[in-house]
Write a structure and sequence with these properties.
This protein has 695 residues and is an alpha+beta fold. The protein contains 24 helices and 20 strands. Helix 10 runs antiparallel to helix 12 and helix 16 packs antiparallel against helix 18. Bound molecules: arginine (ARG) and aspartic acid (ASP). The site of aspartic acid (ASP) has 10 residues, from strand 18.
């Protein structure tokens, strides 16, 4: 009986053999290509990445360094998520022109809105440069010496890499520094906003539905890349023209069904799939609870203020979304790790590793790895939590303290002389202006009152009435003049006097200690990675995400997170109407969408069952940064837009579990429906190439 159970388990595992992984696009030939074909793909490795011919990769752009976007027309039209373009949408919005609430559609090129600072970067070529980067790096060197040699070698490679004048390059570490790749890039800087649905579509369900399935969010926005006359990257100019990329994605009108192959192509930011159990324990039991608490306290105050005042709602929309997003993710991550018993499983895996090390006679090299991790993480715990708490207060939640951190850095720069001071002052002023663009001192003070007692017993509520920095003009006044006068004025400011010892402690005690230990941990992690590959050579190893272009693939699939619950992989417009709460800030539905639903006016965008599809699930292994990534079908057509993961599976950054980890995509047919039927932006549809791959 036991054996039968085991056999059954084995068979189901084989059937759902979907193990996750974020793969390097230039290295897909062999194992990945075969596996993709077995999952239903008709694409070759060269269709996806090729340096001599155009390939899918030419359509995939890194959006502002944090999201993914893709080209969907011969005229540089770009698709990404609503939440990726949100700060641009917000910055063009005012109470009179509220593009957040009403959406925005440029009806011709002239109406498209430029966005200072926004960029999109494409990958021209990827090259393994491990041996050049590691030249001269020996085990005799200290970690610091190793790093400085690696930096020096990298600078030489970057300088001598063959590339055109308008191209750039960068080198990134893979497999914890056991391998290095060079990326030749093209970065476009004239990116204009073309369209965005109202927030009631683009962020339907808001925080309640964020990280959750079933989902009904039309999380998309559209931009256009402009280039110079030679089709090369250029700064904004009214003379620039729409960019023609080597490849743009055709869009399938046939959609997806369960078990269809999907490939998600994008720029995942950061994962940690090879952590020891002790690290996962520390993150989930110490770090996460602490940062969750800081954000919860902030959000309580912020949500209340936003509900009560329309101006505050617009002002804090972007800040609130950023704070709430990770807050909710960490809660889900903890639940997932606990529920899947991930730590115990890791421990069992480590015991197996330890045995193999012994069996293979590798104890001299690798025998102490795991016990060294235990020691280091024990030492790391308190400083790790303290540093995170500092970040929560001084970099995320409290705006006055953010300003204080900046002016502290400016005072510090002064030690290096007037030039350094002036340079830092410029950045400081820009940052303070940025904060004040959407600042509510009363709200910020309430945040301070809520979170500062969690950081220190030294809380002084009066500082808000005695500082210049709650008012932009007063703050700028302090920052005017020669450095010694600026610093004199600054050191009389009550908020600065209050904050300075905390920042001092951070720079002189917390951060150096943190850096010391994390350097040792990283060195150990590098050896551990190498050891895993040597001791268990038959496992599949993909490098952790590092904001470089990756391919992840899988199939459209539902999932069963709890006893007796099974989630279908596709949602429909009917579900939006089920969730509809008139007037609610999260679940209101625009009248026009209700009318289209009542008329069943879906045109060519309906599914074969006559319903309008909204979102779908896949087994693609994604993370933050994959937002806006195209979901591509077996033939290379666009079928979806990645934007989220399911609550039970957000732990996939540390522990990918094929049973419950799912990525969430918007169905492209819903995107087209909104552009066409809802917004009437037919000219955009005409620019695209719509296809029927299923006949
Ligand atoms: N959770 C998704 C991601 O990490 C979507 C966030 C935007 N949506 C939201 N409701 N805040 O970015
Ligand atoms: N929503 C995430 C993003 O913005 C994607 C994810 O974490 O699944 O990249």
């Amino acid at each position: 009986m036991k054996f039968l159970k085991f056999l059954l388990l084995f068979i189901t595992l084989q059937l759902t053999a979907q193990q996750g992984g974020m793969w390097i696009p230039s290295l897909l030939e062999g194992m990945n290509e075969q596996e993709m074909i077995s999952l239903g793909s008709k694409l070759s490795a060269k269709d996806i990445y090729d340096v001599n011919q155009s390939s899918l990769k030419d359509a995939i752009g890194h959006f502002n360094g944090g999201c993914t976007s893709e080209v969907i027309s011969p005229n540089g039209l770009i698709l990404t998520n609503h939440h990726c373009g949100f700060s641009q949408i917000q910055s063009h919005s005012s109470e009179e022109n509220d593009y957040i609430t009403n959406g925005f559609w440029a009806m011709n090129y002239g109406e498209e809105l430029p966005n200072e600072g926004l960029f999109i970067e494409f990958i021209v070529r990827i090259e393994d440069v491990t041996s050049q980067v590691l030249q001269g790096v020996t085990e005799q060197l200290s970690e610091k010496e190793k790093q400085s040699l690696i930096d020096k070698n990298s600078a030489v490679i970057n300088k001598t890499a063959s590339k055109e004048d308008w191209q750039g390059s960068k080198i990134k570490a893979f497999y914890k520094g056991n391998q290095y790749f060079l990326f030749v890039t093209e970065r476009f800087e004239d990116i204009r906003l073309v369209g965005a649905p109202p927030v009631s579509i683009g962020k339907f369900g808001s925080d309640t539905d964020n990280w959750v399935w079933p989902r009904h969010t039309g999380d998309f926005s559209m931009f256009r890349i402009y280039a110079d006359k030679n089709n090369h990257p250029a700064k904004y100019s009214k003379d620039n023209v729409p960019y023609q990329s080597k490849h743009y994605l055709p869009i399938s009108l046939d959609g997806i069904s369960e078990n269809d192959f999907t490939l998600v192509f994008g720029f995942p930011g950061r994962t940690n799939e090879y952590l020891p159990a002790v690290a996962i324990e520390q993150i989930t039991q110490k770090v996460n609870p602490s940062r969750i608490a800081f954000r919860e306290a902030t959000l309580n105050v912020m949500d209340e203020a936003m509900k009560n005042d329309n101006k505050t709602r617009i002002q804090y929309a972007s800040k609130q979304a950023r704070i709430a997003n990770s807050w909710k993710k960490w809660i889900g991550e903890n639940l997932g790790i606990e529920k899947s018993d991930a730590i115990a499983k890791k421990r069992a895996f480590e015991a197996k590793f330890q045995n193999l090390v012994k069996e293979k006679g590798l104890e001299d090299s690798y025998g102490n790895l795991l016990s060294d991790f235990e020691k280091l993480y024990l030492e790391f715990e308190s400083v790790n939590v303290k540093r995170n708490n500092f970040i929560e207060v001084f970099l995320v939640n409290n705006e006055l303290m953010q300003m204080m951190l900046r002016v502290y850095q400016m005072e510090n720069a002064n030690k290096k002389g007037e030039v350094a001071f002036n340079k830092t002052r410029e950045g400081t002023i820009a940052r303070i202006q940025g904060i004040h663009k959407n600042y509510n001192a009363t709200l910020d003070k309430s945040v301070y009152n809520a979170i500062m007692p969690m950081y220190s017993s030294n809380v002084d509520v009066s500082i808000y009435n005695k500082t210049a920095f709650t008012n932009l003009d007063d703050a700028l006044e302090i920052l005017q003049g020669e450095s010694k006068d600026v610093l004199k004025k600054l050191n009389k400011d009550k908020a600065y006097i209050y904050a300075k010892p905390f920042v001092d402690e951070f720079y002189n005690v917390i951060n150096p200690e943190y850096q010391r230990i994390i350097t040792e941990i990283n060195a150990l992690q590098k050896t551990y990675m190498k050891a895993l590959m040597e001791v268990m050579p038959d496992e599949r190893y993909f490098p952790d995400a590092n904001s470089t272009l990756r391919v992840t693939y899988g199939q459209v699939k539902g999932y069963a997170p709890r006893d007796a619950i099974y989630y279908n992989p596709v949602t429909y417009l009917d579900g939006i109407m089920e969730k509809y709460v008139p007037g609610d800030y999260e679940f209101d539905v625009p009248q026009k969408l209700q009318d289209l639903y009542a008329d069943k006016d879906y045109g060519q965008y309906a599914d074969s069952n006559g319903k309008l599809p909204i979102c779908f699930l896949g087994t693609n292994h994604t993370t933050g940064g994959n937002s806006g990534s195209p979901a591509i079908d077996a033939q290379g057509n666009l079928v979806g837009l990645n934007f989220d993961r399911v609550w039970e599976g957000t732990m996939s950054d540390m522990n990918y579990d094929p049973e419950i980890c799912r990525n969430i995509m918007v169905d492209l047919r819903y995107v087209l429906f909104i552009i066409d039927k809802y917004a009437g932006a037919h000219h955009l549809i005409e620019e695209m190439k719509l296809v029927h791959p299923k006949g």
